[in-house]
Amino acid sequence: MRFGKTKLGKMAMEVLKTFFQKPITILYPAEKIEMPEKFRGKLIFHPEKCIGCQLCVKDCPSNAIKIKKLPDGKFEAEIDLDKCIYCAQCVDSCPKKALEATKDVELAQLDSNKLKVILNAGPEEKPQK
Amino acid sequence: MAEEKEFRIPIGPQHPALKEPVSFTLALRGEKIMGVDVRLGYNHRGIEKACEERTYIQDVYLVERICGICSHAHSTCFVQAVEEIAGLEVPKRALYIRTLIGELERVHSHLLWLGVAAHEIGFDTLLMFTWRDREVVMDVLALLTGNRVNYGINTIGGVRRDIDKEEIKEILKAMDILEDRTKYYIEVATQETTVVQRLSGVGILSCEDALRLGAVGPTARASSVARDIRRDDPYAAYGEMKFDVITDDHNDVYGRAVVRLKELLESFKMIRQSMANLPEGPIAVKAPRKIPAGEAVSRYEAPRGEDMHYVKANGTDKPERVKVRAPTLANVQAVRHMLRDRYLADMPIVVAAIDPCFSCTDRLISVNDMDKNRTDTLEWQDLRDYSIEWYKKRGVDFSKMRKLK
Amino acid sequence: MINALVAILIFPGFLFLSAFALFAEYADRKIYARLQNRVGPPIFQPFADIIKLIAKEEIIPEDANPQMFKLAPLFALTAAVTSIFYIPMWMTGALFSFTGDAIVVLYLLTIPTLSFFIGGWYSSSLFARIGSVRAVVALFSYEVPLFMGVLSSCMLADTWSLSGVAVFYEKHPWFWLFNLIGFGVALTALLGKLEKGPFDIPEAETEIVAGGFTEYSGRFLAILRMTIDMEMVVGASLLAAVFLPFGLMFTPIIGFIIYICKVLFVVACISLMRTVVARLRIDQMIEFCWKYLVPLGMLQLLLNFIIKGVILK
Amino acid sequence: MTEEEIKQGLIDKFNYLQDKVAVKRARRLFIEVSMDKFGEVFDHAVKQLNFSMLTTITGLDEGERFGLIYHLASDNGIMLNIKTSIPKSDPVLQTITGYFPSAEMYEREMADLLGINVKGLPEGNRYPLPDDWPADQHPLRKDWKSDVLDKKENQ
Predict the structure, then answer these.
(1) Burial readout C108-139 (b: 16 or more C-beta within 10 A, e: otherwise)
(2) Any idea where the domains of chain D sit in the sequence?
(3) DSSP H helical segments within C157-217, as ranges?
């Protein structure tokens, strides 16, 4: 229906067309969406590459990462996922490429202690020579 | 006419119309707004003080989180000032990538605004459609920069990620989809009767008032003030871009909607230009950790208006002073003027029309107990304990859920 | 006496009406969602909302008037339920009918709006007060077109009783086609009564939080939500009875199914109309109702006069 | 009106600005002027050189003096930054809401964060600090540390 220059119900055709299309929203927990390849999610640490220069600790905007020296000469990274803002500046600052960002973004936890992640060459991960 | 008692109604700081806390106290007579008094500062987090205690590299990420929707604006503005002080020669390819991400962010911000404005006037269908199409540009941004909102593509001396062939194809494909969707939304916004009726004649800001009150960005351009930092004070790669500044003479919310939608078309044009002549070469240059003493002012055309950063360096690796002037601060003055003798129903759309961008705040509520008749304030923790007790009395025990920090 | 009680409480009465009301709300929200390319809620969502609300603690504002605050929703609910008994649903006769029950149904449909006003006014919150005043102001704009639409069809059937109207249209099967303008006017006015679509000004959530219902919580809010759903079903069946009076002469079972389809068709029209337009301001709503709906209503009345005079003589 | 012409015009009009005007880069002019001469330079810049927009006012804490930079912008994108300073002992300043009503917010921000008291500021809400913020605390001063407040609270 026309009202002067404007039309009442301009979106009627578009809306009716959409009624018969597949809805674009998905039921999230059941169906998941894949993040693109270069997405900056949870960090992973390659202890064998780390030389303990603490550059990542210095450059982290929310000091969420700590590098500790283990008795056997290796290094261990402790990342606080609560503080981390996933900017991956540490990945760029690290001269030895010991840190890497993954696509994993579902990191919610009920218990705040689980957010402190210790990444080291634990017994189950054999330290590659 | 007898002096009617003015009816003071507080809007905010928590109110469905305001996406972020700001408090307007409206003096109402019936449905007419007689006076407005604005209370800001709910989101003051001392960013400027925090910048002085962090190194330049950390500041880039701190400054980026001033505002969720125009994060690239703030980080580019800050990085340009620091590069000017340090005298760094940023490679051309980095400037083009910064311009591309800046225009993609303008597309994503304007589409978001159109949805919020439609919601304010009760037209949720347009909100659902615009935000569905906005996902196209969000996915492109996630593909290019690794994050949907805080892109973190800027670093001092250039950008952190390069763009390869298929990504350029992805961008151009997304631009075609978005262009014909935007053309459809321009039709809807200018022809749908109820939208036109709800938007036109609302929030009048004449050209002189826009200049006097210092309005910036689309709000000023809708009152035919042809000011655009990308043309007047070109930065990044805008010097080599051919685009025209959209102005409108409706002086009202309808004009602002038309200006923002037409600016989208300009952005698509610019993105295609930047992709066509993307120069080869490195994407960043090595930046010194300690920036020599000096000061610089850098300006950026954020989606909401002119954003200005002043950085003063004192030779150490921490800035001496960082001053940020977000575009919304300039437009808030105009809101007080625009709301006078309008209807209460227009308040949400007028406030939404300047596309305010404050940010979040901490949680604290004040509860007055009926029987003990004293007011105590409940911190987030006590609120949590109270709700666990309340449900425990009704047989549902949540206390086993470990306490969040 | 017993089957009257059963009729009131169980079958076409409270229990059936509330189940059908929840299903109608589900249909409305699902169509609204699918029109906007969204998946939409599952079928038990409205029922879950009502159960959740009943389980929640209800807070009565300190300086509100507790009696009025508690009673207003009950008034609204009873008015909405009683009006269903006078509307012929699948037989030509309603449960109870007397001459003039069309007027009674229309007034019973006004009582919920007035009780929302009282509830909102006595809950002493700024937003509730403005919302309730707006509800009453809107009442003056959509009430006249609604009455005109419904009564013009009754006038054609020369009787004020809804069952009489159904009987008349049974005798003259194709006459309801003349009332299509009235149907459009009454449907738009019904949108105003149900505070949906362009006329949801009284509870415009972006301006005045939840209008008259701002202070309501727990059981009272559940009653209010149920009332609005029932009002939608009652309004839709009133329009179906007066404007789409076909399918009444078959066996009750087929009649019942046709009745359900008719009501869902009206609900679908309501959903489409509220999807396609933005919310109007209160002054624009009054101007629209009096400038466009009332003249159309008069045109419909004129048309019926001519038909009655010329053809039915 | 290029930057050089503006610079030359300013020097001719105010000879005490002899070596105080610097053109840092394209479209950026920096002026140093003392507080007493600031009024006339500011008036000249706004009225004659039509720098019609005040972007913002930056407050700096420079040891025992407060630095103030008024950022003015003109239509063709040239930015004039007028730098003055006032002693920290009596930080008093004249308001410029006469020229630019929007300066009220920037001046109120300096009053809250640096403790500069601005004369002639219209009455209104405090910005950006909350009302219950202690009056003598000014966060942007160099000597202010964020834990000062915590100590004050648990005394």
Answers:
(1) bbebbbbbbbbbbbbbebbbbbbbbbbbbbbb
(2) 3-146
(3) 162-171, 180-193, 205-208
Which residues of chain B fall short of a pLDDT of 50?
A: 1-3, 358-375, 377, 402-405
Q: Beta strands B158-159 and B294-302: pairing type?
A: unpaired
Nearest to D128 by CA among B23, B149, B145, C53: B23
Q: What is the pLDDT of residue D139?
A: 80
Chains A and C touch (3+ CB pairs under 8 A): yes
**Cβ-Cβ contacts under 8 Å, B404 against chain A:** 110, 112
DSSP annotation string for C262-307:
HHHHHHHHHHHHHHHSPPPPHHHHHHHIIIIIHHHHHHHHHHHHHH
Which CATH homologous superfamily contains domain B47-333? Cytochrome-c3 Hydrogenase, chain B (1.10.645.10)
Tokens at B185, concatenated: 């939304």
What pLDDT shows up at residue B361?
27
Distance, in Å, from the CA atom of B119 to the CA atom of B127, rounded to the nearest integer, reads: 6
**Rounded distance between C-alpha atoms, residue D83 and residue D31, angstroms:** 6
Interchain CB distance below 8 Å, B142 and A10: no
For residue B203, give Cα distances in angstroms to B33, B123, B344, B349, D63. Answer: 12, 19, 12, 9, 45
pLDDT 10s digits, A54-75: 888 888 888 888 888 888 888 8
- For B157: left if phi > 0, alpha if psi spans -120 to 50, otherwise beta; the answer is left
Residue with tokens 């000469």: A73
Taking a C-beta distance cutoff of 8 angstroms, is the pair D30, B84 a contact?
A: no
CATH hierarchy code of domain A38-119: 3.30.70.3270
Domain boundaries, chain B: 47-333
Write out pLDDT tens, residues D32-58: 888 888 888 888 888 888 888 888 888
**CATH architecture assignment, domain D3-146:** 2-Layer Sandwich (3.30)
Which chain C residue's Cα is nearest to B31? Answer: C130
What count of other Cβ atoms lies within 10 Å of the Cβ of residue C252?
Answer: 11
**Sequence ranges of the domains in chain A:** 38-119
- Mean pLDDT for the stretch of residues C166-183: 84
Angstrom distance (rounded) from CA B379 to CA C148: 56
Report the interhelical angle of C252-276 vs C218-243 (nearest 10°): 110
Return the closest-CA partner of residue B303 out of B96, B116, B37.
B116
pLDDT number for residue C281: 82
Asked if A28 and A41 count as a contact pair (C-beta separation under 8 A), the reply is: no
More confident residue, C291 or B394: C291
A30 touching chain C per CB within 8 A: no
Overall average pLDDT of the C29-55 stretch: 91
User: CA B237 → CA B97, B230, B266, B275, distances in Å?
Assistant: 9, 9, 15, 12
Mean pLDDT of the region C193-205: 79
Closest CA to C89 of C199, C242, C193: C242
Percent of chain C with pLDDT over 90: 30
Confidence band for A129, pLDDT divided at 50, 70 and 90: very low
Quick one: pLDDT band at residue A126, thresholds 50, 70, 90?
Answer: very low
Spell out which chain B residues touch chain D, with contact meaning CB-CB distance below 8 angstroms: 37-41, 44, 46, 48-49, 84, 211-214, 227, 229, 231-233, 296-297, 299, 306, 308, 310, 312, 320-321, 323, 325, 329-330, 332-333
Give the pLDDT of residue C261: 92
Distances (CA, A) of B217 to A11, B245, B330, B355, C200: 29, 11, 10, 10, 33
CB-CB neighbors (< 8 A) of A110 in chain B: 401-402, 404
DSSP string, B94-117: HHHHHHHHHHHHHHHHHHHHHHHH
Residue with token string 């359900």: C260
ipTM of the complex: 0.86
User: Cα–Cα distance between D71 and D68 in angstroms, integer?
Assistant: 10
Mean pLDDT computed over every residue of chain C: 86
